[in-house]
Specification:
Layout (H helix, E strand, L loop, with lengths): L1 H23 L7 H17 L1 H6 L10 H9 L5 H18 L2
Helix pairs in contact: 2-4
Length: 99
């Protein structure tokens, strides 16, 4: 029981450190801002002309799956901060799905 409480407290502390880093704009690697801008550019293309962008996706030169960009284009209406918070929590849940 004591170990379970310690693990839960540790997980909560890690979660709040991620939120704190998010709100302070932490970019320890230095390339996240450029990466975010390139992803936003592709998501805007999917939002403006979905079928054309999907059919010509190889011409864009990105190696990521178009599923990510399609999801990002759907959530563009949430605003930049809302979208970032949504994807932060979505990506935090991915390891739980694969346990």
């Amino acid at each position: 029981m004591v170990n379970s409480k310690k693990i839960n407290i540790f997980i909560i502390l890690i979660y709040f450190s991620l939120l704190l880093g998010f709100f302070y704009g932490e970019d320890s690697i230095g390339g996240a801002f450029n990466d975010y801008n390139s992803h936003s550019h592709i998501a805007e293309k999917f939002k403006s002309n979905f079928l054309y962008t999907l059919l010509n996706y190889n011409d864009l030169g990105h190696r990521h799956s178009p599923v990510f960009y399609i999801l990002k284009s759907i959530f563009l209406n949430f605003g930049e901060i809302g979208q970032k918070i949504l994807f932060l929590h979505l990506f935090l849940l991915i390891p739980i799905f694969f346990l």
